[in-house]
Specification:
By secondary structure, the protein is of the alpha/beta class. The chain is built from nine helices and eight strands. The chain has one domain: TIM Barrel. The chain is 41% helix and 16% strand. The longest helix has 21 residues. It binds ligand LCLJCK34, 4-methyl-5-hydroxyethylthiazole phosphate and magnesium ion. Condenses 4-methyl-5-(beta-hydroxyethyl)thiazole monophosphate (THZ-P) and 2-methyl-4-amino-5-hydroxymethyl pyrimidine pyrophosphate (HMP-PP) to form thiamine monophosphate (TMP).
Length: 224
């Protein structure tokens, strides 16, 4: 059975932005402060390094069994580390084949940047993909090749359609503390952040403030 996945505050790690701390030290601090899922992303690491990094992150969340650890891009690493899931983009391995490799019990996320990409995800056999990352909501220096910004209004439209089709929807790209409430108010199930947490002097404090903004954004959406 696929374990539940809580996307409320989804941290995507960046090894360089965590320095001089280790990724595991940052993850250990923030899962105790409201981060609900972690994606291990390091575009510079070798497969061997990513496997070792993933294992350090798994050890860092061991006291938080509800926090899923997902590997970015590398399906082989996800399987070898027995990670909770994997996230792929439109140019990564095809999701049907990723699902065949990871089995039925792991979480699979897919990046979506347009209505056409979302329609294709919704047309997949049920259970292929669990989550769509609506990307990027705003431009971000962390991923300059992410394509044009959706903006919160289009992200809200995509989130509604994704959720109606049974997918978890998360917003990603350019979500700062100042924008977290606006991102949450689009109706997504959660928000993903990199730079709003990884380089912060107090990552746990940043996570706590982001959780407060998510509550504020959700309340504002309900009040509309
Ligand atoms: C939750 C989530 N959404 C989108 C992305 C971006 O994935 P991708 O388009 O494959 O780009 P890279 O992260 O591989 O550079 C993501 N990682 N997570
Ligand atoms: C991995 C990824 N995919 C789309 S935008 C992005 C980076 C998000 O980083 P930040 O939260 O700092 O804008
Ligand atoms: Mg990718």
């Amino acid at each position: 059975m696929r374990p539940p996945f809580d996307p409320t505050l989804y941290l995507v790690t960046d090894t360089g932005l965590c320095r001089p701390r280790s990724v595991a030290d940052v993850v250990r601090a923030v899962v105790a402060a409201g981060v609900t899922a972690v994606q291990v992303r390091d575009k510079h690491a070798s497969r061997r390094e990513l496997l070792a990094l993933t294992r350090t992150v798994q050890a860092a969340v061991v006291d938080h069994p509800g926090v899923a650890v997902v590997v970015n891009d590398a399906v082989d690493v996800a399987v070898l580390a027995d990670a909770d899931g994997v996230h792929v983009g439109q140019d990564d391995l095809p999701v049907e084949e990723v699902r065949a490799l990871i089995g039925a019990d792991r979480h699979l996320g897919l990046s979506v940047s347009s209505a056409a990409e979302l329609d294709a995800a919704l047309a997949l056999p049920p259970g292929t993909v669990d989550l769509v990352g609506l990307s990027p909501v705003w431009e971000t220096p962390v991923k300059p090749d992410a394509g044009p910004a959706l903006g919160p209004a289009r992200a809200a439209t995509l989130a509604t359609a994704a959720r109606a089709g049974g997918l978890i929807a998360v917003a990603i790209g350019g979500i700062t503390l100042d924008r977290a409430a606006e991102a949450a108010a689009t109706g997504v199930d959660g928000i993903c952040v990199v730079a709003a947490v990884c380089p912060e002097a107090d990552p746990a404090g940043a996570a706590r403030r982001l959780r407060e903004e998510i509550v504020r954004g959700r309340l504002a959406q309900v009040a509309r």
